Amino acid sequence: METVKFKTTIKCSGCVATVTPYLNEAVGENNWQVDTQSPDKILTVNTADKTKENEVVQKLQQAGYKAEKIS
């Protein structure tokens, strides 16, 4: 399992509720979390599949949010 982090535009619990079905579809329930207290609103995704990184970004765009992978 690998941890991938993204800087996002997810700002609050309402935003988290909006993206939940999209992220659950992309990487599965309980495989992601958003730190809305962080200035960069960090989304942490646990995945064994590197190809999921692009899918996470695409799903967030479908939900109306932006994500940028950080190292």
UniProtKB/TrEMBL annotation:
PROSITE patterns attached to this UniProt entry: HMA_2 (PS50846)
Domain HMA residues, every copy: 1-68
Coiled coil: none
Top-level taxon: Bacteria
Name of the molecule in the record: HMA domain-containing protein
High-level lineage: Bacteria, Pseudomonadati, Bacteroidota, Chitinophagia, Chitinophagales
